[in-house]
Amino acid sequence: MFVFAALFSFAISxxxxxxxxxxxxxxxxxxxxxxxxxxxxxxxxPREIDxxxxxxxxxxxxxxxxxxxxxxxxxxxxRRGWLGGHHDTAAALADAGFIVLAINHPTDTERDISGTxxxxxxVERPADIKRSIDYMLxxxxxxxxxxxxxxxxxxxxxxxxxxxxxxxxxxxFRKGLPNCQTSSLRACKELENENNESPxxxxxxxxxxxxxxxxxxxxxxxxxxxxxxAVTIPVQLWSSDPAQNADHLSGCCAADITNxxxxxxxxxxxxGAKHFSFxxxxxxxxxxxxxxxxxxxxxxxxxxxxQRFHAEAIAFFKKxxxxxxxx
Length: 327
Hints:
Elements: H1 4-12, E1 17-25, E2 34-42, E3 47-50, E4 56-61, E5 70-76, H2 87-95, E6 99-103, H3 119-138, E7 146-156, H4 158-166, H5 186-192, E8 209-215, E9 235-239, H6 255-258, E10 266-269, H7 284-289, H8 291-294, H9 302-321
Parallel strand pairs: 1-4, 5-6, 5-7, 7-8, 8-9, 9-10
Antiparallel strand pairs: 1-2, 2-6, 3-4
């Protein structure tokens, strides 16, 4: 648990604030509408913002964007997650000079779980990222503020799977796939049933993404080593602690994927971290409402960890996407 004062102090100690804007990709023949939020560099002092469901952000609504030709980071949440699940990470990246887009994956969010764990959503999620980037670069009113040559991705859990596909991974959806036959995952049951529900839509990659931070990707059994050979961009790979995830193995851990990537990733094992320790810091009110995702292992300091985690992610993206001039 975290004291609110410490959280607020951390939020206002940055050099600048994160501006906050709503974002929507309209529904089209390519797919349903995609709801999102954009964090961006802002020169004003951050303020407490009540988000939906009793959550709290620290940002500035409608703040003018500071800077031009800024790098873009897209965030993909985990299964049944939401666009605000990593809001402190988004704000930290925005404070460091990035435009950050977090989206809700249609049919796999906390408010709509109709597609959760399905083969369809495993195909649709990467397409959601590409559609969102397309809209950011082509139709977003401030598209000219983005440097299209500097795009990164942050993916957590099912968002980590999503990220691996976006950057070149080709999931193996064959019937009889090892580990899938014994899995209770909905997608595996769909593959194994007598009707053979293999997806008919193409797998979507996006070569515009030049660097990726991947956290506890799941499910990784869809990626035999040969199916990751096209992943050639820099990857920073984070794993929660297997010792702290006995009750949540579905989202832990990243070690299995490390040796399958053709280029050695920058690997980090977060000692003492549970899977959900990568989600945003919780206020006391949030901790009461969302205890399973706000409660860490005894002795683990999520606030201190997120400061280190954010510093490493920012350094990685700056190294591989280029520095942004300080306003």
